[in-house]
Here is the input.
Amino acid sequence: MSGQENKQKPDFAKGGGLIPAIAQDADTGEILMMAFMNEEALSKTLTSGEVHYWSRSRQELWHKGGTSGHVQKVKEIRLDCDGDVILVKIDQVGGAACHTGHRSCFHFRWSGQGFELEGEPVFDPEEVYGK
Amino acid sequence: MSGQENKQKPDFAKGGGLIPAIAQDADTGEILMMAFMNEEALSKTLTSGEVHYWSRSRQELWHKGGTSGHVQKVKEIRLDCDGDVILVKIDQVGGAACHTGHRSCFHFRWSGQGFELEGEPVFDPEEVYGK
Here is the structure.
């Protein structure tokens, strides 16, 4: 295929230093969450084998599960055609990726009337994160 | 669970009118692409049953596959806990979501040395999109 390169690099400049990163369950294919990585977060993810993001609200490097122990173990990392979206396939320790205690952040499903809550939390966030 | 609402609304304001939308194969769970929706794109997606995005490069509503016929048929739409990421589960007509002809945009895999091309295109983009 002409013009198709064999390597791709992450393009942090396009998004002001941040690239969206989709976390997908490595076994089931379920999409668990989406957050952002800066260059340091990607680098730490690659070297440590545990997913690191950049927290936009706290403006700091965020080792997911670093406090609760509910880390995301990296199984595979992919980059898209334009280098501006990352996909991490992971094992989610503790069973839930969402701060609400739900397994996936995507627990609101379009019903025809609106996006309605579906499913139950796996854990009580107050127990895991404290109040 | 206290504080957990039963409905969620898309929050377009947070991202300047745009929300990232992840397209996932409804059958296999494979993540095919990520693009953006504005309010009109989401509305058209919901009413037509075919995925519409907002093209940031062309600054216009983008009916995916509208020209090539390789549309994305909506099977399910989900919203995340914060209302700022959309997940669409789809059937990809024509077999490929990526403009390169690859089935998925995420065809660069981390090898330990870099993100390296994996797999073959499903179609020749020059034939589908013209030169």
